[in-house]
Amino acid sequence: MTTPATRAGELLRNARFTASFVFHALREDPVRLTRLAAQRLAIARRARRHSSSSAPRPPAPSSSAKSQDPPQHPAIGTPLTVLHHLTNSLPHTQSGYTLRTHAILQAQRDAGLTVHATTRPGYPLTIGALTARHTDVVDGIAYERLIPAWIRRNKPRRLADAAAQLAAVAQRVGAQIIHTTTPAATGEVARAAAETLGLPWVYEVRGLPEETWAASFPTAQDRAAAASSAEYRERRDRETELALAADAVVTLSGTMRDELIARGVPAERISVVPNAVPAALLEREHPTTTEARTTLGLPLGLPTGPATEPLIMGAVSSLVGYEGHDTILRTVAELRSRGLDARALIVGDGVARPDLLALAAALGLDQTVAMLPGRVPPALATTYVAALDVVLIPRRPDRVTRLVTPLKPVEAMAIGRPVVASNLPALAEACGGAGVLVDADDVPAWADAVERLGKDPAWRTERVTAGRAVAESRTWAHLIATYQTVYGHARENRS
Questions:
Q1: Are 447 and 422 in contact (CB under 8 A)?
Q2: Are 343 and 371 contacting, i.e. CB atoms less than 8 angstroms apart?
Q3: Dist. CA 494–CA 200, nearest whole Å
Q4: What does the alpha-carbon distance between residue 387 and residue 314 come to, in Å, rounded to a whole number?
Q5: Is the dihedral of CA 86, 89, 94, 99 positive or negative?
Q6: How far is C-alpha 315 from the geometric centre of its chain's CA atoms?
Q7: d(Cα 116, Cα 199) in Å, to the nearest integer?
Q8: Cα–Cα dist 361/357, whole Å
Q9: Which of 23, 98, 301, 465 could lock 308 by a disulfide, CB 3.0 to 4.6 Å apart?
């Protein structure tokens, strides 16, 4: 257990680092710091409003997120000890990245590996969790925080300090391999620590940060300019250099593997581990749409039977422009023009949320038709998915969305909901033939697909059954052997 003296020391170090971070940020980019602080405050306010609402809550899950000393697990033989160095993690960040990480760590532990995890220097203080503990334990997985005493102005010195902190953890836990992920700022620290200790290291390319950055600009013209800029090339080169230097590379899909090969990464060093789900998600009995909506206080329609319930479509996602959530609202407007009681449920928060609210108003969709509750507690995420008749993944056709596969399709299919997605290579691969693919910009086609799923029970059942089969083939229990093979190759390449 953390003693009062230890806790006081954590808080003192937090305060020193925070003061240093703010001072450094004010010197580097005060406008950006102010903007990020305002965004963080707005998100926190919306989260508090949601958590204090009167909507009923389902029973708390058996897993917990708390700060304490990690429980001890009995060793199985002489397991490989793996140190995962991460950008962020539960419980402070809920995203596809952190959910994938947590599932991997649990599955590796259950397979007999000894796993440890650290997060990037300063996290989660850098996102506003100023009183954060220096170790959080979630479902028995410990996430250790690397909190520097201060931030150095000199970037090479900052990297050296971070690498020294990580190397010290690696030595303390007896790490035999370091496993890190994109972006480069995270990967470079892990690489430096591994090289200091002479350890093999694995780079997991979970995204293409330069493409995500370019896709964040508001207009097609701005996105094209970003994609031809020097900053884009610098970001791309940093990622490519790390993938070339790693002892082994993991990525999420065939589309991303092909991109890495095109950049010169040897094919034999690349392994694909697609997004997957815990077996428990498939084994669990999920609520019907009516049960989920009752739990969440969502519209049920007229009290004459399930057939009169509204057709609710949407997504549980980060709200950023390239996700294309405006298509959900336009599809609802199209279906309502056809006389259907169609409604949108778009759960999550992000920079695109204000624009989505404005679009809903412009389309004449009130708050009972276009429901955007904001960020919700993690324990409710699957209940919101279960409340949907159809899960829509209308990603905009950018380069990043053509290459990078999301977690959302396989989760929806595991919960038993049909998926309609943009007809992009990455999404086609993620859906495994079970999703309904539609051209991203063809709103009438989106409406046709959703309407048919609502009116044709046989076709809906066919899609749900196919989705279930895809999800069953993509559980972490099935895929964890690939990581064990990757670690073996990495150690061979280093020796």
A1: no
A2: yes
A3: 6
A4: 10
A5: positive
A6: 14
A7: 15
A8: 6
A9: 301
Q: Tokens 């020796």 belong to which residue?
A: 495
Of 437, 456, 454, nearest to 445 by C-alpha is 437
Distance CA 341, CA 376 (A): 25
- Tell me how far apart the alpha carbons of residues 109 and 89 are, in angstroms, rounded to a whole number: 17
Complete domains list, the chain, with CATH: 4-278+477-494 (3.40.50.2000), 285-472 (3.40.50.2000)
Three-state SS string across 231-271, please? HHHHHHHHHHHHHHHCCEEEECCHHHHHHHHHCCCCHHHEE
DSSP codes of every residue in 193-231? HHHHHT--EEEEE---HHHHHHHTSSSHHHHHHHHTSHH
Whether residue 329 has pLDDT greater than 50 = yes
* Helices first, then strands: H and E counts in the chain: 20, 15
Q: What is the pLDDT of residue 19?
A: 86
φ/ψ of residue 55, rounded to 5: -60, 135
Could you tell me the two tokens for 187?
């990967």
User: Do residues 335 and 447 make contact, with C-beta atoms less than 8 angstroms apart?
Assistant: yes
Q: Does residue 77 register a pLDDT over 50? A: no
Give the tokens for residue 312. Answer: 């609710």
pLDDT value at 494 more than 90: no
Please, are residues 85 and 115 in contact by the beta-carbon 8 Å criterion? Answer: no
Tell me the chain's radius of gyration from C-alpha atoms.
23
Whether this prediction's pTM lies above 0.70 is answered by yes
Which is nearest to 143 in space by CA: 153, 134, 151? 134
Edge-to-edge strand ranges of the sheet holding 177-181: 65-66, 135-138, 141-145, 114-119, 81-86, 177-181, 201-205, 248-251, 270-272
60 alpha carbon, distance to own chain's centre: 22
